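To illustrate the input format used throughout this study, we show a single complete record. The first block contains the structure-token representation of the backbone; no residue identities are included at this stage. The design step must infer an amino acid for every position from geometry alone.
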């Protein structure tokens, strides 16, 4: 949290001191991971359903920038060595896990594709809304002809 928001920074520090909140947050992250594994389940098949997966091109720098603003005493990132290890884990996850997961998800459809969105972070809809609109329009264009040929 930037220093120019001292009240917000203090409020977040108070919230992060609550073990119940941290357990809830951990539970939410676990469910997110479980849901992601279900979506990218190799047993699922989407046949020829149009599918466009948008992948942020700047997630690594965005996430690593956020890590540099962790509060002192954050478990697992309190020492320079821990912080360096956390950086390494994040980079490995984003390069090997995130991108590969998006590729695997797109591959569940014979018409699926993973599209890299340069100059965008995870919130692509905020940074590059025109790319999201274009992807939706492409999918709609792909399904319209098949809908017109049905009796």
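Output of the design step:
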């Amino acid at each position: 949290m930037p220093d120019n928001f001292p009240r917000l920074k203090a409020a977040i520090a108070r919230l992060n001191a609550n073990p119940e909140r941290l357990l809830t947050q951990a539970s939410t992250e676990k469910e997110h991971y479980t849901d992601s594994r279900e979506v990218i389940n190799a047993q699922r098949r989407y046949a020829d359903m149009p599918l466009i997966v948008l992948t942020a091109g700047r997630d690594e720098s965005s996430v690593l920038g956020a890590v540099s603003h962790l509060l002192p005493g954050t478990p697992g990132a309190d020492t320079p060595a821990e912080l360096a290890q956390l950086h390494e884990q994040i980079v490995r996850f984003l390069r090997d896990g995130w991108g590969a997961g998006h590729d695997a998800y797109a591959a569940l459809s014979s018409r699926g594709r993973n599209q890299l969105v340069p100059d965008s972070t995870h919130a692509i809809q905020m940074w590059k809304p025109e790319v999201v609109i274009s992807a939706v329009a492409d999918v709609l264009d792909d399904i319209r002809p098949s809908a017109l040929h049905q009796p």
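Structural context for interpreting the output: The beta strands are 51-56, 112-117. The chain has six helices and two strands.
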